[in-house]
Each structure stands twice: as structure tokens, then as C-alpha cells.
Design a protein that fits this description.
This protein has helices spanning 27-39, 45-50, 71-78; strands spanning 4-8, 14-19, 54-58, 61-65, 85-88. It has 89 residues and is an alpha+beta fold. It folds into 2 domains: 1-51, no CATH class; 53-89, no CATH class. The strands form 2 sheets. A 3-stranded mixed sheet has the order 3-4-5. The protein has a two-stranded antiparallel ribbon with strand order 1-2. The protein is globular. The protein starts with a strand and ends with a strand. One of its GO terms (molecular function) is glutathione hydrolase activity. InterPro entries: GGT_peptidase, GGT_ssub_C, Ntn_hydrolases_N.
């Protein structure tokens, strides 16, 4: 996946955020979740990068979630309609 550049459309030529990563199949979800943490949840970049993430693996079918999640979210992931299993990383 190529690096992503988020621009500020209200200010001409103003970049808002540049993101990229290494790590194979987890790159797209990590980049999107980090961007959402910064842009939607107003986290600073360091906190956004360190925040736990969720990734869906297609083969084998499973949901992988990092770090500390609430028990409620953990149950939702395990009981999802995709019948995915949860794995702590």
C-alpha cells in the first residue's frame, strides 16, 4: 500500500496528515484506523499510532484485535455474524 496523504480542503495546498506503514496485510486497516483516530477522535499522532487496532484476516477467517479492549467489545467481536474467532496479539 502506498503512503496516504490527507489534505485540508479548506486551505489550499495544506496537508493534514501523511501516513504509511510496513507489515503486510495489516497495513490498510492500520493506516485507516490511525487516520480515524487523528481526524475523528482528535488523538495526537503518537497516541493514535499506539492505540489498539482491529484487523480482519480473510485466510484463515478471524478477527485479530490488539491491546486492551473492553469486555463488551470483545464479546461483540467473538459473536460477530462472520463467526470469526478472536485472537489477542
Amino acid at each position: 500500500m502506498a503512503p496516504s496523504i490527507v489534505v485540508n480542503t479548506k486551505v489550499s495546498c495544506a496537508r493534514r496528515l501523511n501516513l504509511g506503514a510496513t507489515g503486510g496485510e495489516s497495513i490498510p486497516s492500520a493506516v485507516v484506523q490511525t487516520a480515524l483516530n487523528v481526524l475523528s477522535y482528535n488523538m495526537n499522532l503518537t497516541v493514535a499510532v499506539q492505540a489498539p487496532r482491529v484487523r480482519v484476516s480473510l485466510s484463515p477467517e478471524k478477527v485479530v484485535y490488539e491491546g486492551q479492549w473492553t469486555m463488551c467489545l470483545s464479546k461483540v467481536i467473538v459473536m460477530s455474524e462472520t463467526k470469526a474467532c478472536s485472537v489477542h496479539v
